[in-house]
Amino acid sequence: GSLIEQLTTEKYECMVCCEVVRIVAPVWSCQNCYHVFHLNCIKKWARSPASQAEDGNSGWRCPACQNASTQVPKTYTCFCGKVHNPEWNRNEIPHSCGELCGKKRQCLDCPHLCNILCHPGPCPSCPAFVTKTCECGQTSHSVRCGQSTKIHCSNVCGNTLNCGKHSCTQVCHAGKCSPCQLTAQQVCYCGSNFKEVLCGTKEEFSDGFGNFSCQNICGKKLNCGRHNCTQVCHPQPCQLCPRLPQVVYRCPCGQTPLSKLLELGCVERKICTDPIPSCGKTCGKPLSCGSYEFIHTCESLCHEGDCRPCSHTSNIYCRCGFKKKVTAITFMCDKRCNKKRSCGRHKCTEVCCVDTEHKCSLVCGRKLNCGLHRCEEPCHRGSCQTCWQTSFDELTCYCGESVIYPPVPCGTQPPECKKTCTRPHDCDHPVYHSCHSEEKCPPCTYLTQKWCMGKHENTLLFSLFLVCGAVPKLESPICGTLLYPHRAIRYRLTGQVQSQAPQCRRGLASKSWFFICKLSPTQLHLLQIAAISIATKLTDLQLGDSVEISRLITKKEMKQARLQCDEECLALQRNRRLAEALEIDDNSDPFNIRSSGPKYSDLLKEDARKDLKFVSDIEKEMKMLVEAVNKGKHTKKSHCYPPMNRDHRRIIHELAQVYGIESVSYDNEPKRNVVITAVKGKSVCPSNTLTSVLDKEMQSRAPPPIPHYKQTDKSSGNSGLSKPLKEEPVIDYFDVQD
Q1: Per residue, what are the HEC states of 201-247?
Q2: What is the pTM for the complete model shown?
Q3: Angstrom distance (rounded) from CA 279 to CA 567
Q4: Residue 595: its pLDDT value, please?
Q5: In Å, what is the CA distance from 628 to each residue of 71, 618, 621, 633, 677?
Q6: How many CA atoms lie within 13 A of 165 on its CB side?
Q7: How far apart are CA 593 and CA 680, in angstroms?
Q8: pLDDT tens by residue, 181-206
Q9: Is 329 within 8 Å of 317 (Cβ atoms)?
Q10: Cα torsion angle, 627, 632, 634, 639, sign
């Protein structure tokens, strides 16, 4: 219904060209997802490399459902496929023929064809009713044709189980009946062992007496009645007695037939217990000792039973092949294997080792990612798997406001909570930090009245000011005595607070900085607001980041906290009045002061000299990005750099400010990367790049070239010194890369 409405009102869009599908435009409909496309669009898509299936042999993929097709559509047909190039009729569905659909429905067991008019989308379910039997086949019911639900009655199944002896006792069910769960006692082939098994288990291995082999010696009496069977437990019957006269035809060593010995006067054997005549020759049967080149044989005369041990000696290698010894039996050397085991951590240390894989049998024992449990797998290479233990208790923050519901993987940190910390504190001052999972709370940031060490001045300070644990020597800017052992915090009136550790000396407070010992009440109020933010972002402050406080104070407070003007301020005012009198625009640059190029910080230059190739590549990328956005039709263009260390990211951020490019860092270490975005009209390429500035500085430091002169012949009319030779090129040794 939705497809019909959108096609009729021309609101349906082709996924290939993103244009509206007109009611008179030739279309093609996917028979798997029923999306409608322009016929020309789907032809182009099917021939494009992007549409090919992954294996390369399954044809092209539908843009919507990715279903592979082998044939490319060529003709425009109606939805049911009976009419080519259907004409549009305002009283019919667009792209349909107006006749009965007649397609086979999706239900495999429905014999009825679709009986509605030619339509887009799947055919509706069959409305006909048919009679179906239940799963056990005992009852019948009238249901809709093609209904996928199975019919179950309340009768017992009663079908014969796999054992062939018992019947199914389950209520009418789908699929095969479960195996018989009754137990039966089975006996082994030799009759000495029994075991309990499920009824019908391995009945095909029965020999009529037993059902399995117990792997013991059979021991049954043979047909002779005098000897027992020496084979492993086996199905009946046992073999003939190997000593029967009708079975033995040769002497014990096998070299002479018994018929020939009978002609020489030997007594004929009547029963199996009669001795087998000996030929009197050397036995000659091969022994287990020796090697492939030198086979040792039995030197005894023809005899019954096993051969005697070998009397010879030979050079035999140990099983690992490291040592050779003259002996009659195999032996093991005392060499310990020094090869690494499969884990790569431990050595084999086996004596006379013949192992090829050297699997480690020790337990790994390393701590898992949760930090609480250890790996119980056999010692292995690489990282251990994540901890498989899971808690089914709720994990909450300290105050209980934020909750992580089970199952909670082992090692999961408590959830972050925005509520105020409710832990007991050492002081009774107001709490400004949020709820946290650490046992120890951050230092108190409330301002209190405290005397300096020399009892010269009563100043507002933080109640607990030991922020980083460092104890620098700080002197009062007024009295010069030592202040409290804390890490000094200075703030700039532009709205940023930074953590520094300078020596507070006389006269150090300048026009841009105020120390805590010399603050006005308004400035102390600003500092108190800034300290609240510092307490929650202490980690970022120690890394050199800043905290924005301009939004936390009013313009009136900001105006009251301004500094007194000095000589530089007066000079700027005088220049501004002179520019107004001469009608000079503030944006103009008559003396090319601003066009001299951007100013790069000394820190940025120092970092660039360490990795000049990296800086050159970054500037090339930024230049291409700025040119592309200024020449193209898009207002913004972005580029994502790969993950890199903090120093490289800082270089990118500083260069982005020079180019007027926005830069943002994403993800956590060690995958943290930078994304830069150039904006049309805002991002510009500087006249002097950082690499060109460094090249000029290096050239200015290089010594001037020394001219070379050649001496001429004295007989000539020219002077002794001729014109200087062509200057050799100046090599900038500061620009040579490793």
Answers
A1: CCHHHCCCCCCECCCCECCCECCCCCCECCCECCCCCCCCCCCCCCC
A2: 0.29
A3: 134
A4: 45
A5: 41, 15, 11, 9, 12
A6: 11
A7: 25
A8: 888 888 888 888 888 888 877 655 67
A9: no
A10: negative
